[in-house]
Amino acid sequence: MGTIRQIIQRGKYATLLDPALWDYIDRVNDWYPSEIIDLPIDKQRAVYDAMCRAFHEGHPAGVEASDSTIAAGGHAIPIRRYQLAGKAPQAIVVYYHGGGFVLGGLDSHDDICAEICAGTGFAVLSADYRLAPEYPHPAAFDDALAVFEWAAQTSDLPIVLCGESAGGNLAAAVAQATRHHPRRAVGQVLIYPDLGGDGGSHMEHAEAPLLTQRDVEFYRKIRSGPAQSQDDPTFSPLGDTDFSGLPPTFVITAECDPLSSDGEAYRDRIIAAGGHARWHEEPRLVHSFLRARKTVARAGEAFVRILTAIASVATLGKDERVD
Length: 323
Description:
globular; 8-stranded mixed sheet; about 20% strand
């Protein structure tokens, strides 16, 4: 249960979260304490990258990874492709990493992508989009869209869009921008995404472990220019006015996360527009639980649900697609 001081510091989350999850939270905070948000961006990135290396779980047997680049608008976008040796994939997952549009890259979520490949049998294409504040919106979206376009042009496999946190925002924005594309995605799986919402959990879990509402607002602000519209669907997918024509969607969020309500709202709008969408809120978990998938039973079970969702939206979307 922890000491009396820990219980007081942890507030309502002291008993709401399992001890194993607190062990994970404490380990993350040892590497990446909450006050680091006040440090210069280069310092934040250095610490974040070191944390990601410390949490890296390696690749499952049989997963092969190769790096290359995509030429887009005068710059190169690094990508990493994962595939199971000796097995022809039935779909390709275009994956956008998290990190608040400020942190992360191909290495930060490398093991997660490898495990998605192993768990589904699908090829996975990880995109290393440009980061803020050096490259404000729409740079990350433009790169995310370019990677989708490249996948659509170079492969005839069904495409599933997937991303977590900031990457979930990019996946949703790309799905909305390409809904009428001749090679549009057959499905999307969004993992605790920031979709631009501001209700419910943003207030109830404003002081949640590992991601607070202050953090959310910091990352949104640093990504945008002074004239950025919050109704721009390439910036805030919930700001769109048309949710029709989107592929089958699965959104998975954490109960103790200010972003959880974004997933619920997105699901509701897709369903209201006649589409197929599911939202599942994982009880007693926090933002970034993917990194706890090997050490916390609840997080491991959630990761299995994510793998199942990726496989199911690929099948559902492919069956429903009319070209």
